[in-house]
Amino acid sequence: MISSPQLDTGRLSTVDSKLGTGPSHGLRRHLGRLDMVLLTIAATLGIDTIAEIATGGGLESLTWVVILAVTFLFPYGLLISEAGSTFRQEGGPYVWVRLAFGRYAGGLASLLYWVTNPIWLGGSLAFIAAATWNAHIAPLPAGSLPDILFKLSFVWLAIGIAIISIRFGKILINIGAIVKVGLLAVLVVTAALYALQHGVQPMDASLLRPTAGGFLTIAPVLLFALLGFEAANGAAEEMRNPKRDVPRAIGAAGLTSAVCHLLPILALLAVLPAETLSGDSGILDALGEAFTVYGPAQPVLLWGSAVALLYIVLTQGSAWMIASDRVQAVSGADGAFPQYFGRFNTALGTPLRVNMLSGVISTAFTLVATWVATSSSNSAFSVVLSVATTTLLLSYLLILPSVLRLRRRFPDIERPYVVPGGRWGAVGATVITLFWIIIGSFVALAPGVLEQMLGLPYDFGEQWGVSRLAVESLTLGTLGVLLAAHTIGYLIARGHRRVNHDGLTAEQLLENGFSEVTRTVRLARASAPEGAPRR
Q1: H/E element, 450
Q2: Counting CB atoms within 10 angstroms of each CB, which of 99, 107, 147, 309 has the fewest?
Q3: What distance in Å separates the CA atoms of residue 180 and residue 151, rounded to the nearest whole number?
Q4: In this structure, are residues 188 and 267 in contact, taking their beta carbons and an 8 Å threshold?
Q5: What pLDDT score was predicted for residue 58?
Q6: Considering Cα of 365, then 366, then 370, then 371, what sign does the dihedral take?
Q7: pLDDT given for residue 200 in this prediction
Q8: Most confident of 2-6, 72-76, 505-509
Q9: If we measure between CA atoms, which residue out of 204, 100, 101, 515 comes closest to residue 349?
Q10: How many percent of the chain have pLDDT more than 70?
Q11: DSSP state, 18?
Q12: Please, which residues bridge with residue 26 across strands?
């Protein structure tokens, strides 16, 4: 029996490990600390939801930003810092769950984590981009052929950024993150100038008080907007120094994300009343009003802001594709998903097959969403889209507890960063973050239930356009389809493992297209304490 200390950090993080068919498939260390900070900002700072949060909660949304920053963002960052700096393999979240709970659980977590993003890209971001173009750049009638071509071009441009080598793709993502923070800074500064000239909207301090209604309206949306600290670990073996850089990058990105939610929401509410804001165009509505302080330059500045917003949502989608596609590819490489998708392209060093699969899914949702937008099926499709984009939350029900489980299974592995407070510090961080994830998931999957329990009004017909039974049937049906897809993919991959890979050494597995995660898993199984379950 190999002792646990032998599974040391050096063997866990061979950054020159291969993905593909032999030594020519090397992953290169292109991600420095600043790249990781900007990639995390690109993923976690949801500019498309800032106006929605302000619209839904008014001044109360400011309070919930502070509450969630303290009770979710901070402990969540601590947990991911420990996992990401210790288990530093490509496909990070898959590896953590795989080592903690087994291959089936790892594959389920990676599928739920990944599938949200192509659906979100094609079913949400593409529509925001088209609406922005139509309102501020040039006419683009909804549902027209130019509208469809624009959305599909947007989708495949985002996929293309994920396909190209991360050496070059990171430059586009970095620029997108900088432009995002810059545009929000312009909003805040210009709103301050506007306030000096015209005053601000009436603000009653009593409206800052958190309420049950605000809790159910704002918190789930804000929660979704804050997720993504582990995104960079999808490309962990392409980081230059993950031991040192993961915790610091998460700290910098987390602080930036909190500030860049708090101040822009305040600026939006100062310039425009919450009831006049739109979730899709609120940022540009506020900028258009605030830019009047610059006189005749207002139209040009608003046009430039619209172009910036288009680039921001494009690279925001690409950032998630870069991360989640790698997670799903490593799941395939390890045999939790069909192995066809577990290959990285030799020349590009990217999971081209998963990238293309994401593009196909995004395209399908774009076409279907465009078609149903004006049809009687619109309400039902909205329910399916809502559930499908909520699966990201569900994946954290496995990802976050894996940190505690990994501590128990591999206590002797060197951890460059550890959640403060010892065992109880980690338990506390896990419990409080899981509380928020469970609340957000329950609100999404069982809408109206908590509202009724708290005595709040909730009209299914007004909210969804269909009955409660229809919503629950579509919700459970969508989750059932995803679970079946995972199980079928797992069984197909299991047959492949039995035929092709049982009994091979770690080196032979690498030669046959497996990543470093396979070697890690084999070593982990060998070094697990006596009597521990074998998976």
Answers
A1: helix 449-453
A2: 147
A3: 21
A4: yes
A5: 77
A6: negative
A7: 79
A8: 72-76
A9: 515
A10: 82
A11: B
A12: 18
Tokens of 324: 């989640």
Residue 400 to residue 392: CA distance in whole angstroms: 12
18: which strand partners?
A: 26
Residue 523 to residue 466: CA distance in whole angstroms? 52
Six-digit token pair at 261? 């939610």
d(CA 319, CA 159): 10
| Per-residue tokens: 378 | 């619109």
Give the residue from 16, 43, 41, 51 showing the smallest Cα distance to 249.
41
- Tokens for 281, please give them: 């165009």
pLDDT of residue 389: 67
| Average predicted confidence (pLDDT) for the chain | 80
Amino acid found at 3: S
Residue 159 near residue 355 (C-beta atoms within 8 A): yes
Which one, of 197, 186, 199, 198, lies nearest residue 284 by Cα?
A: 186
At residue 252, what is the residue type? A
What's the predicted TM-score (pTM) here?
0.84
What value does the mean pLDDT take over residues 496-522? Answer: 44
Helices (H) and strands (E) in the chain, counts: 25, 0
Tokens of 242: 């993950």
Calpha distance 156→73 (Å, rounded): 32
pLDDT of residue 181: 93
DSSP code for 339: G
Tell me the average pLDDT across 414-424.
90
Residue 438 is inside which H or E element, if any?
A: helix 422-445
- Dist. CA 84–CA 415, nearest whole Å: 10
pLDDT for 288 equals 86
Q: Would the CA dihedral through 31, 35, 37, 39 be positive or negative?
A: negative
Q: Strands (DSSP E) along 371-518, which ranges?
A: none
Sorted by sequence, the CB contacts under 8 Å of residue 217 that are 6+ apart come out as: 56, 57
* Euclidean distance between CA atoms 340 and 535, whole angstroms: 22
pLDDT above 90: percentage of residues in the chain: 31
The burial of 130, by beta-carbon neighbours within 10 Å (0-12 exposed, 13-18 middle, 19 or more buried), is given as buried
Question: How many Å is the maximal CA-CA distance in the chain?
Answer: 76
Contact call for residues 392 and 113 (beta carbons, < 8 A): yes
Within 10 A of 2 (CB to CB), how many other CB atoms are there? 11
The two structure tokens encoding residue 451 = 């509202």
Q: CB within 8 A of 394, min separation 6: which ones?
A: 112, 441
> What is the band of 212 on the pLDDT scale with cuts at 50, 70, 90?
confident
Stated length of the chain: 535
CA gap 261, 259 in Å, rounded: 5
Q: Which residue has the tokens 């993504």?
A: 228
